[in-house]
């Protein structure tokens, strides 16, 4: 991940094009830097015969302080062609392995850190790329994409030639799209095209300084004369105001970058009000996680390294998938491109009575081929899971009260049927669909009735269904052990089991009791399979299925093609779109809802957007001659193009992951054969099973990307600190011993995680590499297992 | 704006760099197109001496159907340098005016439309740009930015040379960031660098076809031989599979573009559930506005042109600023770049106990220098105005109930004090802060008391304050006429007026009555100055000031540095950030709130993001030893980096607009001198005044970007159709007579507008040009004024 040292200013030099003087200007910077101390030059990949390499040029013209100049090349190829071709030729002719992007990035990272460790006084370093910003590197990935994990501050060498204004600006925009900070543009002061004249104000407007520098003399035929003239050129160039100005500016950028980062904790404590945080508990600067950037599954965070020569930026695994939003890792280029494309084409355009391609495509995909397949007819957009659930509730209540002809007064009393521990978002209306609890505010008005749920978990290695005592003596007196997870989630095959009868009786009795008590219910509202924020409760799917069946059977005269009993809402904000291994939970439950909600993963972890899907019968409840009967709910940015386009891109990426080897491999470990009713996880079955046997662990459970670990705690609940205490060691980088970790760049990393009382959970992206997963499992194990067990 | 013809396939040809064979490949396309019918070639800007121009080359090698090839150049300069330099030289030497971007775009648009009108059978057209994608055009703006309003489908000529992989990809990314659709990449099949081999799969992955075509022969010294060899090259090239494939592909793209657009109305009616729309009223395909793209203040919409040779895309003015969100026009490049930058650097990163630069900078700006200046201490992020108001309510209620030590039961009964017609968003909690009404749903629970408000409007040219009858006989029996708007909004100077006494008495009496009735109030919640969704009611600022003062005076023993009486919430979601001409309404009201909310303009009209600002006293109400006391509200995408970075960019743009000539000019018309208590508008004072005198108009009012027109209607209210009926003519393009309009590209345009019952409103961006405003005023006038008046 990103590297930043206090004493070593590192810049990566990119070119707007090939042959724009990148090596010459880097030489000048190296030579100027040598005047003030050590300078390191790294050329990660070099092509061409010996003697022609940039590294020789740098050394030859290093000036009077040659001894302070340390050069290195990681990969040298003889053929003077693009690195990806040179690597392929070497493979074809000499069977030389083509290094992967990961290997190259780790090697660069390792070398830069080594250079940093070799000096304690201020020094400079330059990492010179090859060709233009997007020239392919050894594996064939373009440099910008391959080197993005390192996110070194950059200098862009602009193009001084005809057409160079365009190529310089485009190269800058490619850097920008990958989050690089461009500290300066350097280019030759060509007096004919005068590109610098144009580019200086252009980039100044973006806060970037452009330096125009003397161009080199013409090549001379005599090598000695040529060397003398080149040496003279460098002497004059380095004493030029331009280079001095550049050096001063780059040093100032470095200083201000450090100052800014180090001031951020205090400034944050002074200005920010965090969600879900008791500020009294976090008053120290070290309590603030400064995220300088993020890439793949990792944050790059400000750390206080043990050694003063270490990087003050360190990787930390985003173990909660940034509050359950991440699907493909941070800063995925295709997601950024989708956002930029939609912003460039539409910005945001108003939606009522209008349409645009991104919103329409997304609606069609979700309704016809996605979670709405087979039952939904319409998509309604809003901003987040909470607003989308409020829309779902308004839909269901309208459908129910209209069918039953309730008057304005009676309508207000209609509540919902749900499960204890449900959570549908933080707005007050969504909260009213939940019981009173720690999350609810002054205006909370619990509107409904909530049942206890039997849950699924792995205890001491065994899949166990825990049935609440409230289910009565018909339920087994102790936990019912089931087969494996596939058996448990094969709902159809369990419909005739004795436990199904227990569930059916309990649900029917409850409904009867509610009816007798006159409780008015207008919707069945469920988080299918997993109650997320309520504590990562994995509800027995058989119970949810029987609950739905029973509710629907309670009305015998429902119109055909319409909902029966109560409209059923599936809140799939958390569980949907493969978070727990399937696109929608309908494939497990074997029944469709009348209304469903998606958010979080929907936008690939970039921006808020949510969608409420509804069946035609629900839609018809708003159909009338009066405008007042329409669904009078809408947010200013409804169906914003950026969110919709990013969602479309996310669904495309998911389609490609679905067929990937990584998924097949994980599924294979769970003997998932793709049949209906089976489940799988990205986590290793043996790891989960062993973990569940630890003394401190009550139970563990996993589906898809989610791992939940419930700790034994007599004071369980939201304010319990037990999970946090148990895992506190994992947040910070341990050991720090060399050797490459699975983090991009290979630095050791800590793990960011979130807890819900006595439950800790970890969540990966849909494309987290197996290497990262295995290392994460190791870290969890090392943190939780007692030393003697860990030695086994 | 964007042009699209059924019978004429138009492509704009961009180059990845200069000298990559743009003219040669365009020649080949022209020649191939001539085989099937008419073909038009436009070179908007050409530089170089006569005989060297691309246009001669195209004509010379047009092949056997030369007569079908029609070429044109709009701007020809002799100097063989970049167009912006050529234009400057011509200006310096011959005093030739440098055409503005608008002039160039209008000329291109005009010419393209003329070509389309000259043929009725299928034809092709190519518009060839100069140099690379970002090469500057005549004014100095880069071509991509200057030509963006036309948004023609594009062909990108890739770079076949060393470094060409990089420049081709970067050029593509620059096109993408401006929303262009790239139908194909064409490049020479260079056998040494073989860039096409790399680029074909690279772009295929993005759904774009790459065609590799034979490179031209070497230049021959003898002109005749050279011409023969070039002619032979074109003969062979045009018969090549590559060009045939390209033609077929471009034709297919055109066909599928048309089919897609024309299918969108039906598909939308089949799948989309619109907010705030009674679908029964809009069942026809023609009821659906298909927005193909947007730029500046205009949508580019699918239309059924009167003439079959007209463009099926037409501009339509976004007269509601896309539901009050737009601040700088659609697809502003700086906003797109901000979004891309943040996406590339962070994606979204979780926020509790963390910080990142975009979120911190925004919070500091809002708290210390923005609407929170002088009173706020903290920023809390959420997703939209509605969620941010729920957060504000939770803050206020906690502060109030904590100070007064209310128990869990009593807390539930605390309501708010507000104004009739208020609107704070569509979530149920925000709705509970409003009266029961058409917008409220089954679960609505009106929690509070709402006062009538005196309003400000212009009636028959006179600024008038209308005081409700409920204010009693002390109020003047008829409307109180005030001086001008500046007088009305100079609140301090009116505090001792007789009307102030009337207000004070009424407010005090109301508070006393509520107290006697035992009504528990926990916050004063106001939309300052304008109640937006409630019907664009411009409340007399003096009344809001006195209401706040009186509420605050009701508690004599409030701690110093804390709120007094009730916490005061300003909902500035609509009015804030210069929507009505000032950053915050505190500058008019002369008092600060304890909590305030911003959204909409905050993110420059791109993505949802909202912020709730709070004073330290409010923050302290959540400070305790218990996690359960913290503000347990947060959305998954809280403080998402894209939204925050876009907001930071928006605030920077606003800073630059504040000093702009356009603003000074508009302010000058209202004799706004920047003093406290004065107001101004982008609309012309005489226009508003005259409009208010129309027979059908009850009153008109304007502040900042907003113009509201209230029509006389005995059945006023949300479901009233009167405003819609009065203005129905304005939505569609009228006349359609030539002559350049102020829309980009100069085509005649209709106006999209929204109504609230008998009130129509229009809203511009903060940078809408004076030309667009004046044309919009003309259109409104022409639509509303009776013909005899219009002739005056």
Automatic annotation (TrEMBL), chains A, B:
PANTHER family in alphabetical order: ADENOSYLMETHIONINE-8-AMINO-7-OXONONANOATE AMINOTRANSFERASE (PTHR42684)
Any one cellular-component term (Gene Ontology): mitochondrion
Pfam families linked: AAA_26, Aminotran_3
Protein name: Onanonoxo-7-onima-8-eninoihtemlysoneda
Subcellular location: Mitochondrion
Single GO molecular function: dethiobiotin synthase activity
Keyword Transferase appears in the UniProt entry: yes
Primary localisation category: mitochondrion
One biological process term in Gene Ontology: biotin biosynthetic process
Domain of life of the native organism: Eukaryota
HAMAP family the record matches: BioD
Protein keywords: Aminotransferase, Transferase
């Amino acid at each position: 991940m990103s590297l930043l040292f206090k004493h070593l200013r590192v810049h990566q030099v990119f070119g707007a094009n090939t042959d724009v003087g990148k090596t010459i200007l880097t030489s000048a910077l190296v030579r100027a830097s040598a005047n003030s101390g050590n300078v390191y030059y790294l050329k990660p990949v070099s092509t061409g015969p010996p003697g022609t390499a940039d590294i020789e040029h740098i050394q030859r013209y290093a000036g009077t302080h040659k001894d302070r100049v340390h050069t290195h090349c990681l990969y040298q190829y003889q053929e003077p062609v693009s690195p990806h071709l040179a690597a392929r030729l070497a493979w074809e002719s000499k069977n030389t392995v083509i290094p992967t992007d990961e290997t190259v990035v780790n090697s660069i990272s390792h070398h830069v850190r080594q250079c940093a460790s070799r000096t304690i006084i201020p020094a400079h370093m330059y990492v010179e790329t090859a060709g233009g910003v997007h020239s392919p590197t050894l594996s064939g990935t373009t440099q910008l994409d391959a080197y993005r994990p390192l996110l070194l501050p950059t200098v862009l060498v602009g193009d001084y030639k005809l057409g160079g204004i365009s190529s310089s600006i485009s190269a800058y925009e490619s850097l920008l799209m990958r989050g690089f900070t461009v500290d300066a543009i350097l280019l030759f002061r060509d007096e004919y095209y005068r590109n610098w004249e144009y580019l200086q104000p252009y980039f100044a407007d973006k806060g970037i300084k452009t330096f125009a520098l003397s161009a080199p003399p013409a090549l001379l035929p005599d090598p000695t004369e040529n060397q003398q003239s080149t040496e003279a050129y460098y002497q004059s160039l380095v004493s030029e105001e331009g280079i001095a100005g550049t050096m001063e500016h780059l040093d100032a950028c470095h200083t201000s970058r450090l100052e800014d980062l180090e001031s951020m904790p205090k400034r944050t404590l002074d200005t920010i009000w965090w969600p879900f945080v008791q500020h009294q508990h976090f008053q120290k600067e070290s309590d603030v996680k400064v995220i300088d950037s993020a890439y793949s599954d990792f944050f790059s965070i400000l750390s206080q390294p043990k050694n003063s020569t270490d990087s003050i930026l360190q990787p930390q695994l985003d173990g909660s998938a940034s509050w359950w939003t991440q699907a493909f890792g941070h800063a995925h280029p295709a997601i950024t491109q989708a956002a930029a494309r939609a912003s460039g084409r539409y910005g945001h355009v108003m939606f009522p009575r209008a349409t645009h391609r991104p919103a329409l495509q997304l609606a069609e995909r979700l309704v016809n081929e996605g979670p709405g397949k087979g039952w939904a007819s319409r998509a309604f957009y809003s901003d987040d899971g909470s607003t989308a659930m409020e829309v779902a509730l308004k839909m269901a209540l309208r459908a129910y009260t209209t069918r039953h002809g309730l008057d304005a007064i009676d309508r207000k009393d209609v509540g919902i049927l749900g499960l204890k521990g449900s959570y549908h978002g933080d707005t007050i209306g969504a909260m009213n669909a939940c019981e009173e609890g720690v999350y609810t505010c002054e205006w909370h008005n619990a509107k409904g009735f909530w049942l206890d749920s039997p849950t699924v978990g792995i205890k001491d290695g065994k899949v166990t269904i825990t049935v609440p005592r409230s289910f009565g003596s018909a339920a087994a007196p102790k936990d019912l052990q089931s087969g494996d997870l596939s058996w448990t989630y094969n709902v159809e095959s369990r419909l005739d089991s004795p436990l199904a009868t227990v569930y059916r009786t309990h649900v029917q009795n409850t409904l009867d009791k509610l009816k007798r008590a006159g409780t008015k219910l207008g919707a069945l509202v469920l988080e299918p399979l997993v109650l997320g924020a309520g504590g990562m409760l994995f509800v027995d799917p058989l119970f949810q299925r029987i609950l739905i069946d029973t509710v629907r059977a309670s009305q015998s005269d429902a119109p055909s093609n319409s909902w029966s009993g109560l409209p059923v809402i599936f809140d799939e904000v958390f569980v949907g779109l493969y978070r727990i291994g399937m696109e929608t939970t309908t494939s497990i439950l074997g029944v469709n809802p009348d209304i469903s909600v998606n958010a979080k993963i929907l936008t690939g972890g970039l921006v808020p957007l949510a969608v409420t899907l509804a069946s035609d019968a629900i839609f018809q409840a708003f159909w009338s001659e009066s405008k007042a009967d329409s669904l009078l709910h809408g947010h200013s940015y409804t169906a914003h193009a950026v969110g919709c386009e990013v969602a479309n891109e996310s669904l495309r990426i998911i389609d490609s992951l679905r067929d990937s080897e990584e998924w097949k491999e994980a599924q294979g470990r769970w003997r998932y054969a793709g049949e209906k009713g089976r489940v799988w996880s990205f986590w290793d079955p043996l790891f989960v099973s062993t973990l569940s046997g630890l003394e401190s662990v009550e139970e563990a459970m996993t589906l898809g990307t989610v791992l939940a670990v419930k700790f034994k705690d007599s004071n369980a609940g939201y304010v319990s600190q037990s999970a946090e205490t148990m895992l506190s060691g994992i947040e910070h980088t341990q050991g720090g011993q060399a050797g490459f970790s699975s983090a991009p760049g290979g630095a050791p990393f800590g793990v960011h995680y979130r807890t819900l009382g006595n439950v800790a959970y970890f969540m990966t992206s849909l494309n987290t590499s197996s290497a990262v997963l295995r290392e994460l499992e190791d870290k969890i194990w090392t943190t939780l297992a007692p030393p003697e067990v860990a030695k086994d």
